[in-house]
Amino acid sequence: MYSLEEWVRYGDELRRPLLIADELSYSTHVVIVGGGLSGLTIGYRLASKRPDINITIVEGSNEFGGVIKTWNHDEWTCDLAVNATRSHPAVWRLVDDLSLGDVFMPSNPDAKHRWVHLKGEPHRLSWRTALKIGPLRMRRSVIESRKGGCAVSEVLPHELIADAMTLGIVNDTSAHVDADFLFPSLTRFGPNPPIKWSSIKKKMRDTYPLFTPKKGSLASFDGGMECLIDALSSVLKNMPNVSVEFGMHAESPEAVAEKFKVPLSSVVWTVPMESGPPSTSLSIFAIGYRMEDISNVKVGYGTLVPDTNLPISGILHESDIHHSKRAPEGHRLFRLMVPHSRVKDNHQLVKECAHQLLGSSKSVIFQHLGDREIPSYPPGHMERISQHDSSFTRAGWAFSGVSITHVIAEAERIAALF
Length: 418
Ligand SMILES: Cc1cc2nc3c(=O)[nH]c(=O)nc-3n(C[C@H](O)[C@H](O)[C@H](O)COP(=O)(O)OP(=O)(O)OC[C@H]3O[C@@H](n4cnc5c(N)ncnc54)[C@H](O)[C@@H]3O)c2cc1C
Description:
Low-confidence stretches: none
Helix content: 25-40%
Strand order of the largest sheet: 8-7-13-14-15-12-16
Shape: globular
CATH superfamily of the largest domain: NAD(P)-binding Rossmann-like Domain
Distance between the termini: 18 Å
Structural class: alpha/beta
Number of helices: 16
Bound molecules: flavin-adenine dinucleotide
Number of domains: 2
Strand content: 15-25%
Number of strands: 17
CATH architecture of the largest domain: 3-Layer(aba) Sandwich
CATH class of the largest domain: Alpha Beta
């Protein structure tokens, strides 16, 4: 059972199981596999709290950051993965501890609206969406989902809206995504708080350092998310108890334990397990316009496109969302998400579809930024990972939750055990 203090610190992250080895906190040398946001934040939190413990970070590639990368070209700036964060005090605490408060600001409040492309028309997500789904049907299916292990399609009984949502979050259709993993508060997975959730949320609001975010708002960094990775890398570089092995692909937790001569319980594995469900993949593109050529597109967060006949599953209004500039003066920038289950390596088709969806073919820049793999979370995923064997620790977005709020809160929860 968690205390009220823990609920106020972590909120409904406590519904998510912490997959730690029983003996982890007795380690004198912790080896973290993966130098993405998860591995770096766990390394930073542990190394700061326990300067007497050695920490090694093993990264398969030659750079930190994992899926997070920010593309810059002339005055265009675009993230390839996460571009802004939902509010959670653990994220604000990390930003504050890394002294990044000056470049971390709330997103543009005028860019809140999101649309779903339904039957060729944009439908704005609002309370009216619940009417479209059917409030009574929705209530029944939410209650039903509390038995556990349901797909998102069972909880949100409107196929296109449910698909739009899961495609936007995990690049997969709703029948293939675990509702407990995506919305544990809705399905009531895990422990319940000791007092009303609304009271906890109110108490949490008083704990934000830097600034208290407005309800439902996002926040982001000047210059993109890579700034968080750069700050973590540079602070870790200066910590005497931290060492890094780049270019080392770890075969298994057991092989890592043997190589570094540590007990298996000292290995923190922040990458998906090879025996886990196969990931999905997508391409990310940036497309830019002069303002006058795109004035028909309303300012907002973006549009989700569940229609599998179109190559694009989502358009994010990058230059609308952030407080900092992402496009040259007089221009707007959009980010396109293209699942490989729909199309791969056909850039012309993507460009034509973007022109069709945005209603203008006068783009001034069109760039393939890269490809990304996203872990899969099939129905029952949360239940399955909860019954993990506790010989080594598992963390990162395959286990903690999809968003950086989960990854960052998880790192704090792990360090709190030491
Ligand atoms: C397109 C996209 C959009 C996103 N949008 C959002 C968003 O809007 N909001 C949000 O909160 N989150 C979003 N996310 C999710 C967010 O980016 C992730 O939660 C977070 O970055 C995951 O970090 P991680 O360290 O767990 O994993 P990763 O970034 O995948 O890092 C894993 C690291 O481990 C390394 N590695 C892998 N295998 C091995 C091995 N065997 N040995 C050694 N090293 C290995 C990899 O090279 C990598 O560096 C998005 C992600 C993507 C891809």
